[in-house]
Amino acid sequence: MKSTVLIIEDNEQNMYMLSYLLQKNNYNVIEAFNGKDGLDLAHKHHPEIILIDIQLPDMDGYEICNKLSHNGLPKSTVIIAVTSYAMGGDKEKAIESGADGYLEKPINPDTFVNQMRSIINEKGK
């Protein structure tokens, strides 16, 4: 059975690239272009994986990570911050907010899915 990935990303080009890579690798994809819709879709569909941009128009990804990790989603849900924030401490801030992993943009299309799977496998241990 295909795993479902919710992508919360406001940039259309980034959304297209992530969706394309995931669908090509046999994932179901749900798209949200802002935090409010992302939270609603997460609770409606309970995806196995949630990819979250940190810079969003209505609320930042840290707030979304925090809400998702404390609001009734299955503990097995993997939350990954995918962001261009790459300053010292940003990864730690994402993890403290409830993310299970952190991937920097720009993503590498050749390695992205394997990087995501590595984070999923780490959480499963």
From TrEMBL:
<dbReference type="InterPro" id="IPR011006">
    <property type="entry name" value="CheY-like_superfamily"/>
</dbReference>
<dbReference type="Pfam" id="PF00072">
    <property type="entry name" value="Response_reg"/>
</dbReference>
<dbReference type="InterPro" id="IPR050595">
    <property type="entry name" value="Bact_response_regulator"/>
</dbReference>
<feature type="domain" description="Response regulatory">
    <location>
        <begin position="4"/>
        <end position="120"/>
    </location>
</feature>
<dbReference type="InterPro" id="IPR001789">
    <property type="entry name" value="Sig_transdc_resp-reg_receiver"/>
</dbReference>
<feature type="modified residue" description="4-aspartylphosphate">
    <location>
        <position position="53"/>
    </location>
</feature>
<protein>
    <submittedName>
        <fullName>Response regulator</fullName>
    </submittedName>
</protein>
<keyword id="KW-0597">Phosphoprotein</keyword>
<dbReference type="GO" id="GO:0000160">
    <property type="term" value="P:phosphorelay signal transduction system"/>
</dbReference>
